[in-house]
Amino acid sequence: MENAFEAALLGVVEGLTEFLPVSSTGHLLLLGHFLGFESNGKSFEILIQLGAILAILLVYFRRLLDIALRVPSDPAARRFVIGVVVAFLPAALIGAVLHGFIKGVLFNPFIVCISLIVGGLILLVVDDLELEVKHQDATTFPLPMYLKIGFIQCLAMIPGVSRSGSTIVGAMLLGSSKRAAAEFSFFLAMPTMAGAFAYDLLKSYKTLTVDDVTLIAIGFVTAFISALIVVRSFLDFVTKRGFAPFAWWRIVVGLFGLAGLWIYG
User: Fold this and answer.
1) How far is CA 98 from its chain centroid?
2) What pLDDT is recorded for position 238?
3) Which long-range contacts (CB under 8 A, 24 or more apart) does 206-209 make?
4) Helix residue ranges, H only, 102-174
5) Nearest Cα to Cα of residue 191 among 56, 71, 100
6) Using CB atoms within 10 A as the burial measure, which of 25, 30, 190, 255 is most buried?
7) Is residue 83 scored above 90 in pLDDT?
8) Alpha-carbon gap, residue 143 to 94, rounded angstroms
9) Nearest-10 crossing angle of helices 178-204, 75-101
10) What is the C-alpha to C-alpha distance for residues 151 and 134, in angstroms, rounded to an integer?
11) Looking at the DSSP assignment, which residues form a beta bridge with residue 176?
12) Residue 1 confidence (pLDDT) above 60
């Protein structure tokens, strides 16, 4: 029962943080460390992301369906789909090559804390810059820009960096508005997270026990519900308030995490 509660709590945290520039994986690793929650091969943290994926698919279903239906006849729709694929490829290739190193070495609470703090400081700086906005629509970025965002996203393979944070900051530095940058992070999340889910499941399914699957299912459901809340409200929030609140949250969590590691180990 205790593990079920922890799995539910971690699922809520995953859903609330997956699409915010605060690093869901970093939060899960820190919280799991201090709760004493150890998943099989650290697969829990990856596999419950499916709940967040389904949440964003539900929210964007009509728009995604419209794009899919227009692909055969609309060059703009085909170009956007190609752009998402181009942005996804760097993470797919580099992630497959470095999968073992990432989970074996980088999934470390100390690295997470430092990444949270550094990422928060970067968000504060970028949020305060007066950047030239060239692109207001996430579906019409130039193809080279999609590729550059894809490579920048690879920084998020370091837990604590944040996949959404790296893609949003990268897109803004390349000329995107805050809203368009945040929205493209949603679109790019779908193939990236689905790919990570499928790859990790392929690697770990033989070692998963019935208890593991039960805990993953609990985390999946709570991640789905909490992610729905975030996806529906995040774009309006960042348009009005920017990223400073998330930056300060990262810094505070990172500092508390370092203090906890120093006190409790």
Assistant:
1) 18
2) 82
3) 207/40, 207/41, 208/40, 208/43, 209/40
4) 109-128, 143-153, 163-173
5) 56
6) 25
7) yes
8) 20
9) 50
10) 20
11) 135
12) no
